[in-house]
Amino acid sequence: MKAFLALEDGTLFEGRSFTGPGRAEGEAIFNTGMTGYQEVLTDPSYVGQMVCMTYPHIGNYGVNLEDVESDRIHVEGFIVKECCKVPSNWRAKETLPDYLKRHGVMGLEGIDTRALTRHLRLHGAQRAVISTETDDPKKLAEQAKNIPSMEGLGLADKVSPKGPYVWDGSKPKPVDLSNGTYAWPGPGPRVVVFDFGIKWNILRLLQAEGLDTLVVPTWFTAEQVRRLSPEAIFLSNGPGDPAALTDVVHNVSLLSDQYPTAGICLGHQLLGLALGGQTYKLKFGHHGLNHPVKEIATGHIEVSSQNHGFCVDINTLKDVALTHVNLNDNTLEGFAHVKKPIIAIQYHPEAGPGPHDSRYFFKRFRDMLRKELGK
Length: 375
Known about the structure:
Helix content is 22%, strand content 31%. The protein is an alpha/beta fold.
C-alpha cells in the first residue's frame, strides 16, 4: 500500500506501508543499530518519535516474548528500507508487521533510508507525518509543522506508571502505599527508583546487585519519598525535554541533597538541572548501540547503547567532574559530584539492546552505597 513520509521542511519520501492503512506523526530520527529493533520499539524514551533504522533489512529474526523493555510499543512510527515478513529464529513468536499491527503502529518501507538519514544529519531531527490517506502528499509537510516541537515538551507523564510497584523478576507488581509508608522486605540498601519511562533491564540489573527497589511514578514528591525511608535514589531514562519537568527537577534537587543518587539518560539530565546546570537539544540526537564513549579516569573506550535527544552542558555545572565523553561529538556522557555521592551517565549501561561494556555502572552504584551506608 502506497504511503508517504513528509518532513516539516517539505522533503517528501514515497514508500509502502507494511501495516495497512493509517497515519502517524512525530519527530523523525534515526537509529544506527543493526539489531535490537524489538527493544527499540518498546523503549519508552521513544514516545513522540518515529524511528528510521539505518540498517537496510529489519525483521529477520521476528519478535519474541523475551526481548521487550516495557509492556508495549512506544514509537509513533517505524521506518525501514526493507521489512522481512518471513522471520527465521527459534524464539520468534510473531512477525514484525503483525507485531506493529497489533499495537496500532505504522510501519513504512521502501524509501531510501540512507537519504533520509543523511537529510536528518544535515538539517537535524524534524517533525514528520506518515500517511496512506492523502490525495496531496505535499499537504502532509504543512501538517507536520503543526506537530508540537520536542523542545519544551515534557513527556515523562505519558509513560510513567499510575502508581508505585516492585519488580518481581519478570514484570511490575503494584504496591499499595495508601498509608504513605512501605515495609521494605530485605536488608537493603533501600532504593527508591523514579520511573520516567524505565527500561525493564535496568530493574533487572539493579535487582542483580542485591538492591531493594521500590519504583515510584514521576509525580511522587520529595516528601512522599522521604516517608518511605529510602537510603538512596535512582533516576531512570525517559522521553522528552528534561527542562520541561520543572516540578521533577525541584524534587530531584531536594532528594539528591539528602540521599546518594544515580541517574541514567533522562535521569542524568534531571540531575544536571537539579545541580544548577542547563540542557540543550542535540541536532539529531544519539540513537543506536555502537557509539564510542571514553571514561576520562581510565582512558577506557566503551562501545555504548544510546538514545537521547538532549544533553547537559558541562560548562554550566559547578562542583561536578566530567567522567565520560562521547567520542563522536565530544558531548557530555557522564559526571560525578565532587562533594556528594551523586553519579550519572547519559548513555544506557543496561544494554537493552547493545554491548555490555558499560554494565559496571550498576556495580559502581552499589559500591557507592556500600561506602556511604556501610552495607
